[in-house]
Amino acid sequence: MDIRQVKAYGAASASAPLEEITINRRAVQPHDVEFEILYCGICHSDLHQVKDDFGGTMWPIVPGHELLGRVTMVGNHVKDFKPGDLVGVGCIVDSCGHCEYCDEGIEQFCEEGVTFSFNSVDQVLGGHTYGGFSKTYVCDEKYVLRMPAFEDLAAAAPLLCAGITVYSPLKHWGAGPGKKVGILGIGGLGHLAIKIAKAMGAEVTVFTTSPAKVDDAKRLGADHAVLSSDEEQIATYNRQLHFIIDTVSAKHDVNMYLNLLRHDGTVVLVGLPPQPLEIGAFNVVMGRRSFAGSNIGGIAETQEMLDFCFQHGITADSEIIPIQDVNDAFELLEKGDVKYRFVIDMSSL
Question: SS3 for 266?
Fold first, then answer.
């Protein structure tokens, strides 16, 4: 198969910095879309993968799964995209296409396993996939999203992972008028969860460990904001909430939040703590409560999310950086020192 060499930023090991490297991209196949990457968001899971926190990282690794770009070339069988179109690619770039989950449009649960936009076995070119910290990307048209013309395109890039990661459970668990929704954590995921839940019509209560973020939660649209260390205030929410979106990607105690649920309520984990979380039996048995998880969304639902966010003027609060500052950004992300998403302007690569 014909290949093209492309500039990218990648790491050679868990202890190595990201630096400019050259990677291979496949030449455009009949159903492929090639696009120049304009912006790429930085997700906490990028950091986890680079540090090999989950195990299984393949080196060299080129992170990035919030890709927003402009089409440069399409295969001769592609009908829905043309050069010049704004497009996006999120986490999923391939799946089996024929199992019950793919048939239902929930490719993220593909029985044979999805191919992710980076650090997955590349089913077409061989080797492993390289992500959006690069100049261009090539993807089968089935996994390419049509990007609405957001006024701030850079700030829309994080919707491709962070946005769908919170939109999918908010929709699945029925956020809307009459529902009291809790958001645990105000970071890249949490701040978008606030905006989306409010746009859906829910009453939103935010829980944060940071006093500085209590006021910011109100700015983002939350109806209520609670400091997690304030036991007296926390107690006023006992048995009040229909469900809680837990966005925290570090080890934390979820049991006190389970107690804030009404009967049949659910705490939905969307963060990815690398360590196991402990659940007290009585905290779920009492009130028939649930502790659940949610993992991104399918392609159709991701397109639905993009259109919803465009309609409601929702983008991420973003700090735009050149690719050369990515190592500094990773250090700040590890410390939680970002409001609320780093986005790389790829024009400097």
Answer: strand
